[in-house]
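Take a specimen:
=====
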Amino acid sequence: MFAAPVILEEKADYMKHDRLFKKLIKEFFEEFIEGFFPDLHPYIDFSEVTFLEQEVYWDYIKGTKKEIDLLAEVKLNHEDKILHIHTEAQSSHEADFPERMFLYFSYLYAKHRKPIQPIAVLSYNRQKRRTNPIQNKYPSSKRTSIQLFTTTLKKEKLERIYSIR
C-alpha cells in the first residue's frame, strides 16, 4: 500500500504550473517532505538527495507517452537502502489519475526495483470528492488496494507562503 498526499487548484497554464511545482519541490525538498510526510522525514538522509532524469512511461494500451514529473533518489538514515520519491503535479481533475499514479508506481518499481513513495500535488480550486482507492477485486475474499491520502493546499495559499506570481 502507498500513500499519496494531494494538494488542489483550477487548470490554468499547465506548463507553467508543472515547472513551478517542480522548482519549488526541488528547492524546498526537505521542507516538502517534512510538511507532507512528517513520519518519513526523520528516516531520510537529506545530504544525499539526487533528482533523477525525467522518466518516460509508454502507455501501450492508450498509445500515449507520459513523462513522470519528478523522481528523487534518497538514502535512508542508518541503512544502506535507497528510496525513490515520485512527485506528480496535476493542475486539473482527471478521473483516472489514481490509476495513472498506480501505473507510474508499477513502471518505476519494475525499472528500478527500489521502494517508491508516490506524492500527488493536485492544485485545482474547486474541492473535488476525495480520491477513491484503486482496488483489484478477486472472486475470493482477497483484494489488492492502494489508498491515496489527501491534503488540500490551493494556489492562493502557496502564493502567500512563497510570494509567487
User: Anything to note?
Assistant: The CA atoms of residues 4 and 119 lie 4 Å apart.
